[in-house]
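Lecture 7 notes: from sequence to structure.

We start with a single chain of 386 residues. Read the sequence below before looking at the structure.
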Amino acid sequence: MRIEVSHHCSDFDSYRAARVKSLFNAEKGCDWEKTVELPIEGMDWQIGLIVGPSGSGKTSIGSKLFPETGIYDLYSDWDKDKPVIDCIAPDGDFNMVTGMLSAVGLGDVPAWLRPFHVLSNGEKFRAGLARLASERPDHAVVDEFTSVIDRQIAKVGAAAFAKTWRRGKGQIVLLSCHYDIIEWLQPDWVYDTAEARFYNRDCLRWRPRLELQIHKVRGTVFPRLFKQHYYLDLPNPVAAEYFVGFIDGEPVCHVAVTPLFTAHAYRATRLVVLPEWQGIGVGTRFLNAVCEYHLQGRGRCGKPYPVFFHTSHPQLCGALRHSKKWIQTGAHLYGDNKARSAASLERSYKSRNVSVRRCATGYGGHFRAVQSFKYIGENGNQNIRQ
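Now the structure, written as tokens:
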């Protein structure tokens, strides 16, 4: 694909403009031209990246890749009077929307209930990606990708978005001035405007490996570092031990494990992954490691007891449900379907000998039961005493 870009503006003849031309030999400041060769025709790809410094032509090139679609703006067309959860695919499936928000790393549920304009830069970036992934256009170009956010959020957010986008169809080209996202994004091809160089995925370095170190900590760590990101207001778990996961010496996730003495088991609670690390599987990896630690008999009880975990977070529920290391012990979702909910209420009335002609309404998706899971370990041992 050959892309030719040509821009022309007025040739000003003011005193200062004439002096600049004279001093710096800049006679053609009113003209800007660039020709790019992108060998992507006939190539099987989903994610492309055009990277380079500001003013090197990234936006001009990107706008000519898919002229019929233009540049997709992550930050525009958000209703200021509606929460984010209502602005993304308003006619789409609720579970799909919450799944997309979590998949791109916006797992902070209270943020879903706020309008877009009050979110932080990092939250806006991820909400925009969730909307884009939900709409799933055949072709899209995103400008200033990761340009206005913290670099750690940028790298992890790029990895989370790439994983989400590759689950479906469509081609997307991302425009960025930051080279640090290349290894995390792992695009199918890259064009560097600074060097006028094209290279494909085979030339990229592998995504950096994350070494997760887990330490047992005091309970005072949770309110100091993680409480602001935990949206439930629950009493302190009794006789709990607290664990924190570190990457490169920085705390990234937390969980508490309390013994259930009469049930010969443990319960994990207060699982928190800091926002800048959400979306790349750190939380489930951390939770599995802590649960395996207890299953091996290293917990407070000193015996190989299983660990139970309860959550209503849609994305986490889906991850645990599809994992061979977990079995679901409580699965019914009350109110997931209004008609089914109404029928359930009618059966409940009849079981209690309450006279009712017909239940006029159900919960209609507004109430969701907390789902419960049991960790059964690396070998899938479901016969562990409960």
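Confidence is low (pLDDT under 50) at residues 363-367, 382-386. Keep this in mind for problem set 3.
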